[in-house]
């Protein structure tokens, strides 16, 4: 019974995540299909908007980073069942994004505007490809595990949790963090850049760079020299850029 509840919770968390992800695309793209976006919503004085928006980005980053760390997971899985840990994380991250959508105050000053139809179409194509890269990367790394469904399903079937596996499928052969590369592209590629959009893109980019540092520490702790070698050979967000010399000794070729 408890495992059925856990599976139900995982499905609800996944549904909330998916709806939030779709809304995020419309929010960042300022698409007229949703009521509030990065450039449309309740007005506020510039200083208030800046403070509120920075606070919302910081809250999102704090929740994401704190809950993703191994130390937090060890403590947290003493309170919630291990198979539900990822779903709780996914739900909490989605709720932080919903809070951001709700609290965001537009800062409408235009910083750049591309009116040339070909230029604008190119930027929209980049925007769409960024989101496509994000979604595809989740499937490459293991979509259903990343969003907590696999853990709940395995618990329901009485199967042991899958051990973490080091993967280098497709995009991961060219960059170590394609999911974040996709977000970078999606956040920055716009024909109409406002002050608010720039704040969002810059804040999220800064957070992603910090998140990568922390994630790589964990990945090295789990995968050791394999990940060190990968880091020395493969770029971080763009091919060939951001390779880091290994700190663990690399075994000589046999
Ligand atoms: C939100 S995903 C982001 C993955 C990666 N940072 C990216 O941008 O594509 C985070 C999870 O992916 C896992 N991960 C990242 N790179 C990996 C790899 N090469 N093989 C296996 N797991 C990986 C991390 O341990 C973490 O649980």
From TrEMBL:
Metal-binding found in the keyword field: no
Keywords: Membrane, Methyltransferase, S-adenosyl-L-methionine, Transferase, Transmembrane, Transmembrane helix
Top-level EC class as recorded in UniProt: transferase
EC number: 2.1.1.334
Entry's localization field: Membrane
Membrane-protein topology: Multi-pass membrane protein
Chief location of this protein within or outside the cell: membrane
GO molecular function: methyltransferase activity
Limits of the NnrU domain: 56-228
Membrane-spanning segments: 7-27, 47-66, 87-104, 124-149
Catalytic activity: methanethiol + S-adenosyl-L-methionine = dimethyl sulfide + S-adenosyl-L-homocysteine + H(+)
Coiled coil (UniProt feature): none
Any one GO biological process: methylation
Gene Ontology CC terms, in alphabetical order: membrane
Its biological purpose: Catalyzes the methylation of methanethiol (MeSH) to yield dimethylsulphide (DMS).
Family: Belongs to the nurim family.
Identification of the protein by name: methanethiol S-methyltransferase
Species whose genome carries this gene: Sphingomonas kaistensis
């Amino acid at each position: 019974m408890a495992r059925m509840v856990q599976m139900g919770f995982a499905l609800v968390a996944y549904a909330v995540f998916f709806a939030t992800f779709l809304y995020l695309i419309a929010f960042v793209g300022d698409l007229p299909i949703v009521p509030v976006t990065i450039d449309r919503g309740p007005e506020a004085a510039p200083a208030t908007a800046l403070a509120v928006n920075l606070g919302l980005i910081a809250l999102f980053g704090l929740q994401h980073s704190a809950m993703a760390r191994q130390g937090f997971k060890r403590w947290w899985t003493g309170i919630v069942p291990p198979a539900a840990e990822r779903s709780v994380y996914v739900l909490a991250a989605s709720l932080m994004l919903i809070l951001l959508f709700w609290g965001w105050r537009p800062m409408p000053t235009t910083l750049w505007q591309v009116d040339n139809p070909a230029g604008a179409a190119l930027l929209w194509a980049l925007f769409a490809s960024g989101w496509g890269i994000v979604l595809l990367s989740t499937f490459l790394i293991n979509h259903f595990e990343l969003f907590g469904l696999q853990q709940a399903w395995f618990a329901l079937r009485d199967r042991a949790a899958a051990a973490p596996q080091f993967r280098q499928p497709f995009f991961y052969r060219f960059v170590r963090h394609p999911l974040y590369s996709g977000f970078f592209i999606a956040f920055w590629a716009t024909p109409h850049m406002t002050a608010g959009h720039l704040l969002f893109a810059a804040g999220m980019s800064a957070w992603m760079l910090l998140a990568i540092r922390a994630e790589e520490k964990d990945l090295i702790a789990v995968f050791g020299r394999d990940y060190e070698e990968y880091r020395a050979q493969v770029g971080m967000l763009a091919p060939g850029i951001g390779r880091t010399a290994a700190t663990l000794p690399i075994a000589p070729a046999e």
